[in-house]
Specification:
The complex is a heterodimer. Chain A is of the alpha+beta class. Chain A has one domain: 2-Layer Sandwich (Alpha-Beta Plaits). Chain A is built from three helices and six strands; from the N terminus they run E-H-E-E-E-E-H-H-E. The N terminus of chain A is likely disordered. Chain B is an all-alpha fold. Chain B has a domain of 63 residues. Chain B has a two-stranded antiparallel ribbon with strand order 1-2. The longest helix of chain B has 26 residues. Chain B is elongated. The termini of chain B are far apart. The chains are: A alpha+beta, B mainly alpha. At the A-B interface, helix 1 and strand 2 of A face helix 15, helix 16, helix 17, helix 19 and helix 21 of B.
Chain lengths: 133, 420
């Protein structure tokens, strides 16, 4: 076959109206910071991420790709306490987020499968985006 | 002489209509069209007897100018209604009586006409139709053929579009910077649609298809020639069109047959257009915005330059991943999945293709059919047969049939090998 670019050109309507929006929050182990991984490793990792997001985008289900977050920062707490982390009480930190659309929480969770964060020893949190009525 | 007149019509009709409409207002666009058409009729009669004048364009401009002036004088519209609304600058060349068909005025008028017909109040089909009629000098017949519909539909569509231009009070006037910005996006989109209509058209008329692409390219170039519309994404769009158009000769085999990318004779790719594409791609690489035209141009560029290896397909996949985030469409999703197959192999592509759910599209079935070859030939054939029943053109059905025959032949050969 052939390069489909020479052929495919048309559009289809999906069930846009039935879709709800969800936020996928990627939490990564803190030690998976950039400095512990080689440049090659980083490249492979970002390709993996990109292709994974691309797979969801190919289904027309990405609303917007959030920015990736640097693995450093500050945390503010009650009483004027400022620390360099940990960012959550556990050993994980927020690595980035992705806004997607899906028919249900279950479907959104299915879409989150295969996320590279999981291979990196992290987690994906799937949260419906609140709708104001 | 018939040939000459047809050429002149295609080339000059739009210019003259643009200049006249700019001077008197878009509400007279139909009159402008009529008067220019009459001018060509006069030319046909007069040149028959007296021979072709030394400078046919000048003859046309002069006669058109006289007809226009006579029309407005006779109707007294000029004095009663138009003059009060005319801009000062227009009143200035009013004194010179003749309508000003200079190169500069033609170019400005056409650009403004382009921005006017791309007014968001009109639907995209109406915009393309109008652009083809008043900017590219296409006949109603040709437009109908390009859209795969009949004359009446196009006539109605154009009539409604012109009504709309009037009722919305859309003018052919220099736009403010903000207006240019918003109007430009729409204009680029219309040029893009015009080009793809030609490039992927269902019509079998090859000349018409090339004309559509050439006109789209011309309108795109027009934008890059004016300071205010010469923005990076306009250049990216022109680059994209150049790269695609470079393969025109290589992809056509007679009226009915389309040669697909893998089988194309690279020596037939038009190098001139590829260089031009590179030039405009270079000009597009400024500023911060990465438009879908930038990404598509870079993909098309990869197909023109890079060897068909894994490295190219990794790059193409990367660009399609980005393109999906900027501008999702089922076509992009399918192309991205095909790139995934070329870059990462059948297995991962099959997994993702199954998730796409674009079963209404024959391209989707073609893709799945292709991915299943060698994995499960029965499934592959099933998908290809479905694709064939859904296919839009004879060329596509032929391609699918060939593919099916190859699978059967390969299967038989493989079985023979095991027997031996």
């Amino acid at each position: 076959m052939s390069n489909l670019a020479d052929l495919a050109h048309y559009t289809i309507n999906d069930n846009e109206s039935k879709m709800k929006e969800f936020m996928l929050l990627f939490r990564l182990p803190q030690q998976a910071g950039e400095d512990t991984v080689s440049e090659e490793g980083m490249k492979a990792l970002s390709k993996k991420w990109e292709n994974w997001v691309g797979g969801i985008a190919a289904q027309g289900k990405v609303v917007s790709a959030g920015p990736r977050l640097e693995p450093v920062g500050k945390v503010l707490k009650n009483g004027g306490v400022v620390t360099d982390g940990p960012f959550v009480e556990v050993r994980e930190m927020l690595g980035g987020f992705l806004r997607i659309k899906a028919a249900s929480l279950d479907e959104a969770t299915t879409l989150a499968h295969g996320c590279p964060a999981i291979d990196q020893g992290g987690t994906v949190e799937v949260r419906p985006i609140m709708v104001y009525s | 002489m018939k040939g000459l007149l047809a050429d002149l019509f295609r080339r000059e009709f739009g210019k003259m209509v643009a200049v006249i409409s700019r001077r008197y207002g878009l509400q007279y666009i139909e009159i402008a069209e009529d008067l220019v058409s009459e001018t060509f009729l006069s030319a046909a009669e007069s040149w028959q007897g007296k021979g072709i004048p030394a400078n046919p364009e000048a003859w046309l401009y002069h006669v058109a100018s006289q007809k226009v002036l006579l029309y407005f004088r006779r109707n007294k519209i000029l004095m009663d209604k138009i003059v009060p609304h005319m801009r000062e600058s227009q009143e200035i060349y009013e004194e010179s009586a003749e309508i000003c068909f200079t190169d500069g005025n033609i170019k400005d008028s056409q650009l403004q006409m382009l921005l006017a017909v791309c007014h968001p109040a009109l639907g995209s089909e109406a915009q393309i139709g109008l652009a083809l009629r008043v900017l590219c000098g296409f006949s109603i017949d040709e437009i109908a053929q390009a859209f795969f519909t009949n004359k009446e539909t196009i006539n109605k569509r154009l009539f409604r579009a012109k009504e709309r231009l009037r009722s919305e009070g859309i003018t052919v006037e220099p736009l403010g910077d903000d207006d240019v910005g918003t109007r430009l996006d729409n204009t680029l989109h219309i040029i893009y649609l015009l080009f793809t209509e030609g490039y992927y058209s269902r019509t079998r008329d090859e000349i018409l298809r090339r004309d559509l692409c050439r006109e789209a390219l011309r309108l795109g170039l027009m934008l890059t020639e004016h300071k205010r519309t010469d923005v990076p994404k306009a250049n990216a769009l022109v680059a994209l069109m150049c790269f695609h158009a470079s393969r025109f000769d290589a992809r056509q085999a007679g009226q009915e047959n389309m040669i697909l990318y893998d089988d194309q004779d690279r020596s037939k790719w038009n190098q001139e257009l590829i260089y031009q594409g590179m030039y405009f791609l270079g000009r597009s690489a400024v500023g911060n915005e990465i438009s879908s035209y930038h990404l598509e141009a870079r993909i098309a560029c990869c197909h023109c330059y890079r060897d068909d290896g894994e490295e190219k397909w990794q790059e193409v996949l990367h660009l399609y991943n980005q393109l999906l985030l900027v501008n999702y469409s089922p076509a992009v999703a399918l192309n991205r999945t095909y790139a995934l197959y070329k870059a990462e192999g059948r297995e991962s592509a099959l997994l993702e293709a199954e998730k796409l759910q674009l079963s209404g599209s024959h391209f989707y079935h073609m893709l799945l059919g292709e991915l299943y070859i060698g994995v499960n030939n029965n499934k592959a054939m099933e998908y290809l047969r479905t694709a064939s029943t859904l296919a839009g053109t004879e060329a596509e059905r032929k391609h699918i049939k060939r593919r099916l025959e190859e699978i059967i032949k390969d299967g038989v050969e493989r079985r023979d090998e095991t027997v031996k």
